[in-house]
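Sharing in case it's useful to others searching the archive later.

Someone asked me privately for the predicted structure of Bifunctional protein FolD, so I'm posting the question and my answer publicly. Question first, with the sequence:
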Amino acid sequence: MAPVLTSKELVEGARREIVAHVAEEKQAGRVPCMAVVVATDDSAALSYARVKDRIAKELGIEVRIEVLDASTTQAALNQRMEALSNDPMVHGVLLELPLRRGLDANIAINCLAPQKDIDGLSDFNVARVAVGNEEVAIAPATPQACIAPAESETKVAGKLVTVIGRGRTVGRPLAHMLINRGATVIHCHSGTSDLPSLTSQCDILFTATGRAGLVGAAHVRAGQVVVDAGTDYSSGKVLGDVDAEAVGHVVKAYTPVPGGVGPLTTVFLFKNLLKAIALQTGSEQ
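And my answer, the predicted structure tokens:
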């Protein structure tokens, strides 16, 4: 079996960096603060928010969890996002997805100042990443969490990579971010014909569809690195896009689900919060 690229060491390294950076912010008179807005009946969303709160406390970061009830309208959600964006004590705002039916996440996220959109999903941040200007943007956390384990094994610059999935939160921005880093990208999705012929020729394969077991032995070749950002739920288990048992006997290395991209995504959210502070204070050059 190929080596499993767990995220433990990368997470621990990132946490040390964050703790040091938070200490610097506090010395400068700022306590990094993130607001998490929950406007859904999905119990998992509130659970995820509480996990962020727990990890934030370990890092010295303040988190405000705001739960909006079922009567919340789009206008009320927008107003709350604007108010948090205008609060000088809040440095970043995260909207837990998916939202309750009838609420539009894109409208709500675009009520934020781009420098407080730590999910990197506002039109401003999406556009800046797409045109290769990540320095003045906040990039989505999950694509960053995909690239990190891949680069722990091999640099993406100069490599032929394949991305499966065109979702707004992972697949689309990931393809742009890989191009920004010098990779040659094949972008596949549900409309792609003969998927195995495209995935099996690349050096690094990224997948983010949420379709359990989509990628099997026929999709890969020896020497590849495979990064799985897909999550699906079956019989109480969290499953990835990759059939690890089948793929693990072929490729060079792969990330597991759970234990791969997921834990890294959380720490990159906090790194985004610190970048947000730098953008707001003018210290990000």
